[in-house]
Write a structure and sequence with these properties.
Rossmann fold; 3 domains; globular; single chain; 15 helices; alpha/beta; about 400 residues; 5-stranded parallel beta sheet; 7-stranded mixed beta sheet; 15 strands
């Protein structure tokens, strides 16, 4: 029996999934395989190098369900990064293998599939979309001591000093909603602001930070209305907003509800400017809302015009997904950067030793395309970086330029 066969067997035997399912057989199989490793190899020649064991990266995202257009970007970014790394020879001769799981954009389902993903014993996990989903499943990699880099969820509770294995590369609501409030008051001169938000973790998290930030400018929100993203008719909430005649509406939600809210608001004669945070940073927003979304200003996580390397990457990405239904460079860019520029260098130096890998990620510091500053993880596992603001203009995102003071 070749030695590399036992390498695979021992790795499987050490997985949490096998220990739970066949605890009485672990020691027996391990002893058998350890004994075989001591025998002279006969399946390969003495001069032939042993095959390297693949690096296993798990990806979790909502590939179907309400978040499908976001999850598509996460998967595309992972596939693009891994294809490039493997084509260049892998990491220390080891190829990367992806295991992609679909949580259907549902928190309960997300917890189930994360447990299944952990059962396959990945070296690390990079993915996660939706604050409610990530909050529902993040304890599993934390308890299993598997590094997890979150690329698509912004609730402040996801990163904290007590979480040693969970990291996040996009800005949290604490930062984005605070910056949005400053922009709304100082740049846009909005004075009468209403809030409409999804009643999930993402919507409520943004609402709370935004209201608190406005209080610093002595601005009080005129009204706050909530909605359920599974609904399609938002007339009741929008009529309440129309009655107070705001000049700005902070919309804290995602697709598919957000473009419907914009269209229905315009149909009711509401002319207030929409503003929002990263949940609206999706090309499907203006594809579905069309003219209703024109002029919307929001905080984002990526824009191809941030710098020249970002523009080059964006062209390569659009070519990579040319035939795909969804194109989501915002999520794809962060999944790509997290794997290629953060995870890959740490895998190169730490290998599959999870403690060393976790420590390498925690201490990572460097520059990334599209981020005009050196970035690093703080003590909570949050990547510190500048915020990007964009505006919808002629059915496209363009970088928002702050007026001169």
């Amino acid at each position: 029996m070749p030695n590399y066969f036992c390498d695979y067997v021992l790795r499987y035997l050490n997985s949490d999934f096998f220990r739970r399912s066949q605890p009485c057989h672990v020691k027996l199989y391990a002893l058998i395989c350890t004994g075989l490793l001591s025998l002279p190899p006969f399946a390969i020649s003495a001069n032939q190098p042993l095959p390297a064991v693949d690096i296993h990266i798990g990806v979790i995202a909502g590939i179907t369900g309400a978040g499908a257009s976001y999850g598509a970007g996460i998967v595309q970014g992972a596939e693009m990064a891994v294809q490039e790394i493997n084509a260049a020879g892998g990491i220390n001769g080891r190829k990367i293998k992806l295991t992609i799981v679909d949580d259907t954009s549902d928190p309960a389902r997300s917890a189930i599939v994360m447990r299944r993903l952990i059962g396959t014993s990945p070296d690390l996990i990079v993915g996660g979309w939706g604050s409610s989903q990530v909050l529902a499943h993040m304890n599993f990699p934390e308890q299993s001591a598997i590094p997890y880099i979150v690329v698509g969820a912004t609730n402040p509770r996801i990163t904290s000093p007590s979480n040693k294995w969970v990291f996040r590369v996009i800005q949290s609501d604490d930062v984005m909603a605070e910056q949005l409030a400053q922009l709304a008051i100082t740049d846009l001169g909005l004075k009468r602001i209403a809030i409409i938000h999804d009643n999930n973790a993402y919507g409520t998290g943004n609402r709370d930070v935004f209201i608190s930030a406005l209080e610093k400018y002595r601005v009080k929100v005129l009204d706050v209305v909530t909605y359920n993203s599974s609904r399609t008719d938002f007339k009741t909430q929008l009529l309440a907003i129309k009655a107070i005649n705001p000049d700005g509406i902070a919309l804290f939600g995602t697709l598919p509800a957000a473009p419907k809210i914009m269209q229905q608001a315009r149909a009711l004669g509401i002319t207030a400017r929409f503003i929002g945070t990263g949940g609206l940073a999706n090309e499907q927003l203006f594809a579905e809302a069309s003219a209703a979304s024109e002029g919307t200003i929001l905080m984002s996580h990526f824009h191809e015009d941030s710098d020249a390397p970002a523009n080059v990457w964006n062209k390569q990405y659009l070519h990579f997904v040319e035939q795909k239904k969804y194109k989501s460079p915002v999520r794809a860019a962060w999944e790509y950067r997290a794997i290629k520029y953060i995870a890959a260098p740490c895998l190169n130096s730490a290998g599959s030793d999870r403690v060393k890998l976790r420590n390498c990620i925690a201490n990572w510091r460097g520059t990334l395309f599209g981020v005009n500053a050196e970035s690093y993880f703080d003590q909570t596992g949050q990547l510190v970086q500048p915020v990007i603001a964009v505006e919808i203009h002629n059915q496209a995102f363009r970088l928002y330029t702050r007026p001169p003071k």
